[in-house]
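Hey team,

Filing this mostly as a record. A colleague (T.K.) asked me to run one chain through the structure pipeline before their review meeting, and I want the input and output archived in the tracker in case anyone asks later how it was produced. No errors, nothing strange. Just documentation.

Input sequence:
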Amino acid sequence: MSSHEHLDRALPDTSADPRAEVSLTVNGHAVTREVSTRMLLSDFLRHGLRLTGTHVGCEHGVCGACTVMIDGRSARSCLTLAVQADGAEVRTIESEANDDGSLSALQQAFQECHGLQCGYCTPGMIMNIRSHFDSGEPLDLSDAGIRELISGNLCRCTGYANIVKAVRRAAELAGRA
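Output structure:
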């Protein structure tokens, strides 16, 4: 076999993986699909539901780019199997805007404070912060407290200073300051 013959072979249309039906609520909409038991929630959201705002960075749960909310808590969708989310309520960045399409307080604060540059980390960062805002727990809005809150999300562009400002501003806009 030449070194390029493998490129000419057709890939199977379906996987031989066992399949399972999952039913969950994604951004307020009931969804039922049959999926491979090995499919990651990030792949289910991005490829199965075309919700591409959930980014995949490291695929090891380190960077936080794939962060979504599962039953009100932030979670790494690259470490969660779609079948593990069966029966859960999942929120992605696509649910963040207000019902009228206007920016949420978090989105507005990131825009006002220049809390993003390339934007790759932003959806995961916002979903993580949203989880903390929605928890009802007291927020430590000191620089150290905010840095601790976002410590599970890596950003390679900003140096975090404007993200810290954006979190504080979002808390003000949301009445959490």
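Quick notes for T.K.: The beta strands are 19-26, 29-36, 67-70, 73-76, 89-91. The longest strand covers residues 19-26.
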